[in-house]
């Protein structure tokens, strides 16, 4: 894969790093891939490469760069507390501004032909929702985005297509939260909420114990179909 790091200027002049993966043909629609709390680690880079193989130009911004550049943590007892520490210290409104700058850089990238979407996981799912509410992307995918149910006042601002993936047995996001998201977007043709039965939070990540191949494959297929209709 043609994976490499680039520098992007944030709105305040700070330097935001991002991992970029480009498709075999060199150009395609764009994806802002938003990390979990473990940083732009090997898994996120692999996911970026995976979508690049599907024909997308992918940028995975280093969300935690203001705390520590290129955080790259594993899914283990040593790194997990560090990951939660980075998440707890994150200035989320500022992170959305930083990601908006990344989205603007992606639109200007020579490898992007057409529209762009955000695809985020866990913390990144909520940030993907934030990008959609800010009007920074043409479509958004939110994998088990924690806290979206507390930001439903922004739902009227989301006019682009948006896809939500939730886990039925999510230990962090109760079904009552999912129901509130469904209610906020009820009757909206631009929104879809899918719930995956019998699986837990993080089911898409093959590096974690809750990985579920069937649910991950189904969600990925739905995501690719959604992206093919909205940004391709």
Task: Give the full name of the CATH homologous superfamily.
Answer: Alpha/Beta hydrolase fold, catalytic domain
- Mean of all residue-level pLDDT scores: 97
Termini Cα gap: 21 Å
Number of helices: 6
Strands ordered across the widest β-sheet: 1-2-4-3-5-6-7-8
What sequence of helices (H) and strands (E) makes up the elements? Answer: EEEHEHHEHEEHEH
In what range is the share of β-strand residues?
Answer: 15-25%
Low-confidence stretches: none
Short description:
By secondary structure, the chain is of the alpha/beta class.
Layout of helices and strands:
Elements: E1 2-9, E2 15-22, E3 28-34, H1 42-53, E4 57-61, H2 79-89, H3 92-108, E5 112-121, H4 123-133, E6 139-143, E7 162-167, H5 175-184, E8 191-196, H6 213-230
Parallel strand pairs: 3-4, 3-5, 5-6, 6-7, 7-8
Antiparallel strand pairs: 1-2, 2-4
Written account of the structure:
This protein has 232 residues and is an alpha/beta fold. The chain has a single domain (2-230), classed as Alpha/Beta hydrolase fold, catalytic domain (Rossmann fold, 3-Layer(aba) Sandwich), CATH 3.40.50. It has helices spanning 42-53, 79-89, 92-108, 123-133, 175-184, 213-230; strands at 2-9, 15-22, 28-34, 57-61, 112-121, 139-143, 162-167, 191-196. β3 (28-34), α1 and β4 (57-61) form a beta-alpha-beta unit. The protein is globular, with a radius of gyration of 16 Å.
